[in-house]
Amino acid sequence: MNEPLPYDPSQLRDRAQSIISNVRELSQLGWTPATSSNFSLRLDEAHAAITVSGRDKGRLVEDDIMVVDFDGRAVGRALRPSAETLLHTQLYRRFPEIGCVLHTHSPVQTVASRLYAGQGHVRLEGYELLKAFEGNSTHEMAIDVPVFANTQDMNVLAAQVDALLDRQSLWGYLIDGHGLYAWGRTMAEARRHLEAFEFLFACELELRKLGHR
Question: Among 37, 48, 121, 209, which has the highest number of CB atoms less than 10 A from its own CB?
Answer without folding.
Answer: 48
